[in-house]
Write a structure and sequence with these properties.
With 390 residues, the protein is of the alpha/beta class. Helices cover 39% and strands 23% of the residues.
């Protein structure tokens, strides 16, 4: 039997979601959109105002249906805050966002050491410091979400994180339960997909995938507006698809596809051909300068990218693939070639597939970490209200 407050929680979440999507509405408009009585809306919005999550705008809002004026309501940007942290190979990237989803603080801190116990303690200290310095330890910080470059299962254990050199690290007990606020962790590609769904303006996209292109290659899969994690939470490791049995390894650190699409292989191929740039930034400069070696290297890379996208389309059948991570900056140079290869397949899964580059750049995974907490404010377990906004 549902708890007595369950219906109230559902209605509060519905109102918050509606104001998030629509911006400014009167109580009458809220009642009309959600099919609630005016008295119910008055109670629900009154409670949300007391919690500081919504606020009157001070303006008069004329209801379209009746033509009568009413007080306008909107989300209160300072009503709640959310932290997102990306745990990368060499550094951690931290974002603090408000209830509008706007970034109000950003910082990147290099690792002192990649030993799990050192990284976890540094993360605890960093989160507490940002909370204290930026929010004065306000209880309006709703929690923190960590995005990890590795395979993390539903129990909070990082089974394998090759870029960090971690295996079977119990992140839940080493980090999450030690923080004095709600804390969650997710794979970085999954987090990047949540960022696109939550903050990317993807209205109308219920099925999309994020292809995270870095040292490794991973996919975050959104199906019917929900993150697909799989049985143990390890879904989306598309970079480890093996298309050549002779290349299979019993304990692989780098997957078959990502050994062709990942950053290190791209740069190694470029240098073997005589390229002089020392890193990805230098390679991009060479490419922008129409360097022949860089151009030839990226054209070969594009063939493998097209194959990766094709496999992802066959597995998940998304409407949209969003390219994220450092190597996504290469796509404008090869987009036509990739599209041509997909069209040549003449296969239904790629016929109408849309491909875009994420607008979030460096912030994508960390923003998805924040979304792990942010989205909880707009949803209730075992409820479905997205249809209200259709």
């Amino acid at each position: 039997m549902p708890r007595p407050t369950f219906l109230r929680d559902i209605n509060q979440a519905r109102v918050l979601r509606l104001l998030k999507e629509k911006g400014v509405l009167s109580r009458a408009e809220v009642a009309r959109y959600l099919g609630l009585t005016r008295s119910t809306v008055t109670l629900v919005t009154g409670e949300l105002i007391r919690k500081g999550l919504i606020a009157p705008t001070g303006e008069t809002f004329v209801t379209q249906l009746t033509g009568r004026p009413g007080a306008a309501l909107k989300l209160n940007g300072d009503g709640a805050f959310f932290l997102g942290v990306e745990i990368g190979a060499n550094e951690v990237h931290v974002l603090l966002i408000n209830l509008f989803g706007s970034i109000i603080h950003r910082q990147t801190v290099p690792h002192r050491s990649t030993r799990p116990e050192v990284v976890c303690q540094d993360l605890i200290d960093l989160v507490l410091r940002v909370w204290s310095e930026r929010l004065k330890n306000s209880d309006r910080l709703r929690g923190v979400g960590f995005a990890v470059s590795g395979l993390i299962n539903t129990q909070g254990v990082i089974r394998k994180a090759p870029t960090l050199g971690w295996h079977d690290v119990d992140l839940k007990n080493e980090l999450l339960v030690k923080l004095p606020l709600p804390a969650f962790a997710e794979n970085d590609a999954n987090a990047a997909a949540l960022a696109e769904l939550s903050f990317g303006g993807r209205v109308g996209y219920s099925d999309l995938c994020v292809l995270l292109l870095n040292v490794g290659v991973g996919a975050g899969i959104i199906s019917e507006r929900k993150l697909f994690r799989g049985y143990l939470g390890l879904a989306g490791e598309i970079g480890h698809l093996c298309l050549e049995p002779a290349r299979r390894h019993p304990d692989e650190e780098i997957g078959y596809l990502e050994s062709h699409v990942g950053r290190d292989h791209l740069l190694a191929s470029y240098r073997r051909a005589g390229g002089r740039a020392k890193n990805l930034a230098g390679f991009l400069e060479d490419l922008k300068g129409d360097g022949a070696i860089a151009r030839k290297t990226v054209e070969t890379w594009a063939e493998w990218l097209a194959l990766t996208i094709s496999n992802l389309a066959d597995i998940a059948n998304p409407k949209l693939v969003v390219l994220a991570g450092p190597l996504s900056e290469l796509y404008p140079f090869v987009g036509r070639r990739v599209r041509k290869r997909l069209e040549e397949r003449r296969f239904p899964t790629v016929e109408d597939l849309e491909i875009e580059v994420s607008n979030f750049g460096r912030d994508g995974a960390a923003l998805g970490g924040a979304a792990l907490v942010f989205n909880g404010l707009f949803s209730v377990p075992d409820s479905s209200f997205l249809g209200d906004l259709a």
